[in-house]
Design brief:
It comes from Marinilactibacillus psychrotolerans. GO terms for molecular function: magnesium ion binding; phosphopentomutase activity. Belongs to the phosphopentomutase family. Pfam families: Metalloenzyme (PF01676). By secondary structure, this protein is α/β, with parallel strands linked by helices. It has two domains: 3-97 and 233-402, 3-Layer(aba) Sandwich (Alkaline Phosphatase, subunit A); 104-229, no CATH class. The protein is built from 15 helices and 16 strands. Helix 11 (255-258) links the parallel strand 11 and strand 12. The longest helix has 21 residues, at 307-327. The two termini are 14 Å apart.
C-alpha cells in the first residue's frame, strides 16, 4: 500500500445532472468546466486534460481534446441539491437523511428550553414582531446563517476571549440535538466581544435573523470552527474507519473543517498555493495513508461569477497537480474530482447540480474507465478496498477497474 490522495476542486462540475429540470430548473444547461474553457480558451491546464477532463465532460472543443491514455469516470450527486458540506460527507461514504429547511425562529423556543435545562443562561434578542436570535451566557449568539441558502444552516457564534472553543462546541452540540436543519456551524474568534456580534445582527424578509459573520469580525483573528451536520455518523465514514486501523489521515483545506477524524494532521485554509504546499509536505513525509485536499477558491470564484478568477485558480491547481504526479510512486493513487458544480456563466451565483469528474492517476495505469457512478461515495468505498478496511456506510468500489 502507498498513498491514496483525493483532490477536490470545489465546484468543478462537468455537466448538469439528468434530474435538474425537475429539482433545480435554474441549473439547466450548466457545465462549469466546459463553459470556463469556452470563455477562456487560452486557459493552460495540460495536466487536467491529460488526466481526462474532456473525456469526463463528454465532448471536445477546439484545441481541447480527449485523452487516449486517461483513467476516468464521472459521478452523480446522491445527496439532495448541490452542497459542499453534504457533498464531502457523500465523498467520505455517507449520505445524510434529508434535512428540514426552516428559519431559526421555528426552532428558537425548543433550543432555548434545551439550553436552559442544561444549565445555560439564555435570553431572546429582538422585537416581538420580528424574528429573534438567542444570546447564551452573554458571549454567544445563535441564529440563522445569512451567508448560505437561507433556512439550511444555524450559526452558533462566540467570542473566544470570553469562552473556550471546547465550551462553545458543547453549546453547538446541544443545539444540534434538537434541530433538523442541514448544519449547525459553531465558530468563534478572538479580539471581539458580544457587542461585535450584536451590532452585526440583521433581519432578512422579516423571517430570518442572524449575525452577519464577516461584519462581526469573528473571522479576523483566532478563528476556529466545527460543522455539525444532520444525520452524520463519522464512525462509518472512511477517515474514521482508517483512524481505527491506525492508517494515517490528513485533511487539507475546507475538508479539514467539515469532515471529522481523530487525526491531528488537519490543515484548514483557503489560499490555493498554501494548501498545495501543505499537500506536498504530507506527501513527502507519509509513506502510506489517505490525504484529501479541498481547493475552495474555485468555488468562491463561481459564487462571484468571476470566470477569469476561476480559470486562474484552475491554472495554479493544474501546475501543482503536475508537480504532484512527479512525486507519486507505483503504489500511489490520485483522484481529482469535484463535489458539485458552480457554473459562473449560468446566470446565478449559487451551486449547480452537476456530475463531477473522476480523473484517476496511478503510475503505469492507462486507459481505464470506471463509468458513471451513481454516488460520489464510490470513492470512499474504493479507498476502503485499497487499504483493505471496513466498508463505509455507502458506496460501491471501483478498485477492480484499477487493478494493473
Amino acid at each position: 500500500m502507498g498513498k491514496f490522495i483525493v483532490i477536490v476542486l470545489d465546484s468543478f462540475g462537468v455537466g448538469a445532472m439528468g434530474d435538474v429540470e425537475e429539482v433545480r430548473a435554474q441549473d439547466v444547461g450548466s457545465n462549469t468546466a466546459l463553459h470556463i474553457i469556452k470563455k477562456i480558451p487560452e486557459i493552460n491546464i495540460p495536466n487536467l486534460l491529460n488526466l481526462g477532463l474532456m473525456n469526463a465532460i463528454g465532448e471536445e472543443w477546439e484545441g481541447f481534446k480527449f485523452s487516449e491514455k486517461a483513467n476516468w469516470g464521472t459521478a452523480n450527486l446522491s445527496h439532495q441539491g448541490a452542497d459542499s458540506f453534504l457533498g464531502h460527507q457523500e465523498i467520505m461514504g455517507t449520505i445524510p437523511p434529508i434535512p428540514l429547511n426552516e428559519p431559526f425562529s421555528a426552532s428558537i423556543d425548543k433550543v432555548k428550553k434545551h439550553l436552559f435545562e442544561n444549565g445555560y443562561t439564555v435570553r431572546k434578542l429582538g422585537e416581538e414582531h420580528e424574528p429573534n436570535i438567542l444570546v447564551i451566557n452573554e458571549c454567544v449568539t445563535i441564529g440563522d446563517n445569512l451567508e448560505t441558502d437561507l433556512g439550511q444552516v444555524y450559526n452558533v457564534s462566540g467570542s473566544l476571549d470570553l469562552i473556550s472553543f471546547e465550551e462553545l462546541t458543547e453549546i453547538g452540540k446541544k443545539v444540534r440535538e434538537v434541530v433538523k436543519v442541514s448544519r449547525v456551524i459553531t465558530f468563534g474568534g478572538e479580539n471581539m466581544d458580544l457587542d461585535n456580534l450584536l451590532n452585526a445582527r440583521k433581519i432578512i424578509d422579516n423571517k430570518f435573523s442572524g449575525v452577519d459573520a464577516p461584519e462581526s469580525g469573528v473571522y479576523d483573528k483566532g478563528y476556529q470552527v466545527i460543522h455539525l451536520g444532520y444525520g452524520i455518523d463519522p464512525k462509518i465514514q472512511i477517515p474514521s474507519i482508517l483512524d481505527t486501523q491506525d492508517i494515517p489521515v490528513s485533511l487539507i483545506g475546507k475538508v479539514a473543517d467539515i469532515v471529522q477524524t481523530k487525526s491531528q494532521e488537519l490543515y484548514p485554509g483557503v489560499d490555493t498555493q498554501y494548501l498545495f504546499d501543505q499537500l506536498f509536505e504530507q506527501v513527502d513525509k507519509m509513506s502510506t495513508g489517505f490525504i484529501c485536499l479541498n481547493i475552495q477558491e474555485t468555488d468562491l470564484a463561481g459564487h462571484a461569477e468571476d470566470v477569469p478568477r476561476y480559470a486562474d485558480r484552475l491554472e495554479i491547481s493544474d501546475k501543482n497537480i503536475g508537480r504532484l504526479l512527479d512525486k507519486l510512486n507505483e503504489e500511489d493513487i490520485l483522484i481529482v474530482m469535484a463535489d458539485h458544480g458552480n457554473d459562473p456563466t449560468v446566470g446565478h451565483s449559487q451551486h449547480t447540480r452537476e456530475k463531477v469528474p473522476l480523473l484517476i492517476y496511478s503510475k503505469g495505469l492507462s486507459n481505464r474507465q470506471v463509468g458513471l457512478r451513481e454516488t460520489m461515495s464510490d470513492v470512499a468505498a474504493t479507498i476502503s478496498d485499497y487499504f483493505e478496511t471496513q466498508k463505509p456506510a455507502n458506496g460501491v468500489s471501483f478498485m477492480k477497474e484499477l487493478i494493473k
